[in-house]
Design brief:
3 domains, 46% helix, five-stranded parallel β-sheet, single chain, alpha/beta, Tyrosyl-Transfer RNA Synthetase
Length: 404
C-alpha cells in the first residue's frame, strides 16, 4: 500500500496543498510537526497527528518534531473565544522540557530530530522581523480568518496584538526550518491550517520555493459529539501522573462500537490486514468487544510500554472478577491501590469499610453485610470477620477496597 493510499484508508488525508493524494508518493519529504508547551503533557487529542507523522517516518521520510518554547510564550489564539492566560517563562521552560521527553518516548527507537523554536525566536530583532516577515502578511487576509474575525467582530472579546501576531511566528518557524533543514512539508491538526498556510505563503514569497501543508482531521467522539480526548474529568493525558495508566487503558476500552475500528486505524500501528481481521471478528460477535480490547492494548503499550499494559490488564481482570487477586504482582497491587481505596490487613470487615471511607458508619457497614451487599474475592460475607490476608472487598456493583 502506498503512503497516499494508507493515509486515505486510515482517515488522515484531510486539508492539504497537494493537487492529488498521489503527490505524496512522488518525492521524499523533510517534514515537521510542532506542539506548544501550554501544559506539561500531551493528551490523546494530540495523538492522532503524531500517529499521522509516524506513517511518514515508517516509510523513510525525515521527521523533525518541534516543541514551541518560543511560540508558547505568546500562545496560539486559534480555537479560543478569549485571550489565553500567559504562562510564566519558567512554566514554559518546564513544560518544554516535559514535552520534549514525552515525544522522545513516544517515538522511541525511531530516527527523528527534536528542536525548540525558542532557540531561534529568542534572538529575532523586532525591526528586522517586521520588515522581512511582517511585510509579507496582509492585514485584510489575517482579519478574515475565522478565529480572528470572531474575536474582533460584534460581541467578540477582542484579541491582543501578541496573539494576533502568533501566525507570523509560526510562519517564520516554517521558513527557518525550510532554510536550515530543507523542510518542505508541515503537518498539524486541522485547527492549525491557517497558521501552516502562513508558512507556506511566506516561503513562496521570500524564497520562491514551493512548500506543502497537510493536516490531520479533528477527531470527534461519535457517541458524544465532543472533541476527542475529553472525558467527564477533563482531558485524557499521556503523562501517568495526570491520567493513570489504568484510567488511560479504560478510556480506550470504553470506546463505543461505532468508533472502535476508526480509532484502531488512527491510533494503532496495526496494518490493514490485522485491522480488517479484527473488524470481521468484532462484527461477528460485538459483545466480546474485541476491537475495544485490541485498541486499549495497542495504544497503552505504545504510550506506556508493554509491561505497564500487562499490569493494568491483569488489574482490570481482577476487578471484573475474571482473575483471582492472588495472581497480582507487587507492581500490579501498587497499580490497583492507586485506583481504589487501600488498607492494611488485620482489621475487622466493619472497621475496614469505615476506615477506608467505603461506608460512613459502623451501622451502615453492618446493614450492608447483613443484606449480602459485601463480598470478598467474589464470595459474599454475611458476618463481621477479621480480614487478615490480601483481599479484594466489593460493595455493591462498582465500589472496591484493597486489603494488603
Amino acid at each position: 500500500m502506498k503512503l497516499s493510499e494508507e493515509l486515505q484508508w486510515r482517515g488522515f488525508y484531510n486539508q492539504t496543498t497537494f493537487e492529488s493524494p498521489s503527490s505524496l508518493d512522488e518525492q521524499g519529504f523533510t517534514l515537521y510537526l510542532g506542539t506548544d508547551p501550554t501544559a506539561d503533557s500531551l493528551h490523546v487529542g494530540h495523538l492522532a497527528v503524531y500517529m499521522m507523522v509516524r506513517r511518514f517516518l515508517d516509510r523513510g521520510h525525515r521527521v523533525i518534531l518541534l516543541v514551541g518554547g518560543g511560540t508558547g510564550v505568546i500562545g496560539d489564539p486559534g480555537g479560543r473565544t478569549d485571550e489565553r492566560s500567559l504562562l510564566s517563562l519558567d512554566q514554559v521552560a518546564d513544560n518544554t522540557t516535559a514535552l520534549a521527553a514525552q515525544v522522545s518516548k513516544l517515538f522511541s527507537g525511531q530516527e527523528f530530530q527534536l528542536v525548540n523554536n525558542y532557540d531561534w525566536l529568542k534572538d529575532i530583532n523586532i525591526l528586522e522581523f517586521l520588515r522581512d516577515v511582517g511585510k509579507h502578511f496582509s492585514m485584510t487576509q489575517l482579519t478574515q480568518r475565522d478565529y480572528i474575525a470572531k474575536r474582533i467582530g460584534e460581541g467578540g472579546t477582542g484579541i491582543s496584538y501578541a496573539e494576533f501576531s502568533y501566525t507570523l511566528l509560526q510562519g517564520y518557524d516554517y521558513l527557518h526550518l525550510h532554510r536550515t533543514e530543507g523542510v518542505n512539508l508541515q503537518i498539524g491538526g486541522s485547527d492549525q491550517w491557517g497558521n501552516i498556510i502562513s508558512g507556506v505563503e511566506l516561503i513562496r514569497k521570500v524564497t520562491g520555493n514551493t512548500a506543502h501543508a497537510m493536516t490531520a482531521p479533528l477527531v470527534i467522539n461519535k457517541s458524544t459529539g465532543r472533541k476527542f480526548g475529553k472525558s467527564e474529568g477533563g482531558a485524557v493525558w499521556l503523562d501517568e501522573s495526570k491520567t493513570s495508566v489504568y484510567k488511560f487503558y479504560q478510556f480506550w476500552l470504553n470506546t463505543d462500537d461505532e468508533s472502535a475500528i476508526d480509532y484502531l486505524k488512527l491510533f494503532s500501528l496495526l496494518d490493514k490486514s490485522e485491522i480488517d481481521q479484527i473488524e470481521s471478528e468484532h462484527k461477528a460477535s460485538p459483545a466480546q468487544r474485541l476491537a475495544q480490547r485490541r485498541l486499549a492494548e495497542e495504544v497503552t503499550a505504545l504510550v506506556h510500554g508493554q509491561d505497564r499494559l500487562e499490569s493494568v490488564a491483569r488489574v482490570t481482570d481482577v476487578l471484573f472478577g475474571r482473575t483471582d487477586i492472588e495472581s497480582l504482582s507487587e507492581l500490579d497491587l501498587n497499580e490497583l491501590s492507586s485506583e481504589i481505596p487501600s488498607i492494611q490487613a488485620g482489621f475487622t470487615l466493619v472497621e475496614s469499610l469505615v476506615e477506608s471511607g467505603l461506608v460512613a458508619s459502623n451501622g451502615e457497614a453492618r446493614r450492608l453485610i447483613k443484606s449480602g451487599a459485601i463480598s470478598r474475592d467474589g464470595q459474599k460475607l454475611t458476618e463481621d470477620i477479621v480480614i487478615n490476608k490480601l483481599s479484594l472487598i466489593k460493595k455493591g456493583k462498582n465500589s472496591f477496597l484493597l486489603v494488603r
